[in-house]
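Consortium newsletter contribution from the modelling node. Members have asked for a concrete example of what our holo predictions look like. Here is one, prepared for the calcium ion complex that several groups have been discussing at recent meetings.
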Amino acid sequence: AAKRARLGTSVYEPGLDQHSAAQLTVISDLRRAIDHGELVLHYQPKADLRTGTVCGAEVLCRWQHPRLGLLGPDRFIPAAEETGLIEPLTQYVLDHALEQCRTWHAGGWDVPISVNVGAQCLQDPTFPDQVERLLKDHGRPPDVLTLEITESAIIADPHRATDVLTRLRELGVRLSIDDFGTGYSSIAYLRTMPVHEMKIDRSFTTNMRSDSSSGAITRSLLGLAHNLELEVVAEGVEDEETWTALAALGCDIVQGYCLSKPLPADEFAVWLRNRMLD
Ligand code: C2E
Ligand code: CA
Ligand code: CA
Ligand code: CA
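And here is the predicted structure:
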């Protein structure tokens, strides 16, 4: 609350360091960025680990800032979460990504997409209706969309989050738990959460071959997820050795630089075409 009050004031405070001052500009600009279409979506492919077939893409947001250049999400998502702008931002991302899906569909490509959803959306009882409307507006079936949520978004208010997630699931949207194992853990919630998929955080997968505890955690998470009949996506897979090691553990899907980094839509389309020609 103290933070919010300070962000709300326009008076210069000598106590603000340069970073905070820059952060203030970012926040006041973000509303305009959403209204003026300055947010850019990049798409990172995911592939079936056994066949190598591309099975979807995660949508990752960047901000083409008029003065500061291309900003990564770490520069503005936390601020958006703190100021309530995450809801209009999520709407923007869903709207533009589903429109992209429609374009690809018209061209003969059905690419399922995964969109990151912030904590506040899971506390908003109107969120499922918004998602339903956006799917209808863009003429896409609900199963093209996976919503990625984090443990911390659930823990904020598990009861309300469960209600919202249940309605999303009833809509036919897929649900994924992101960054699993990095939050204040909540294995207990896995039993009651109506999710389809678990994403293993890259802090575990990236080091799994060099660091035995990361390897052990990855193995345990895979076992846990599979026992609960969840599909498992390993993120941050950077090399072929890790891919092979994950395949040996029975992991389902991979995402990471070994396939491709996140790409703008047009480059993603080129990447996909080249891959299908291989
Ligand atoms: P995330 O959901 O865990 O996304 C994965 C991040 O890992 C992305 O960073 C991606 O570029 C990066 N990554 C993917 N493969 C590799 C790899 O092989 N190696 C390494 N070192 N990194 C890899 P990015 O794009 O900077 O996004 C950071 C975070 O920002 C995301 O983490 C997500 O939590 C958040 N974010 C991004 N877009 C959105 C959005 O539209 N809405 C919300 N609410 N959050 C978003
Ligand atoms: Ca994610
Ligand atoms: Ca993640
Ligand atoms: Ca992560």
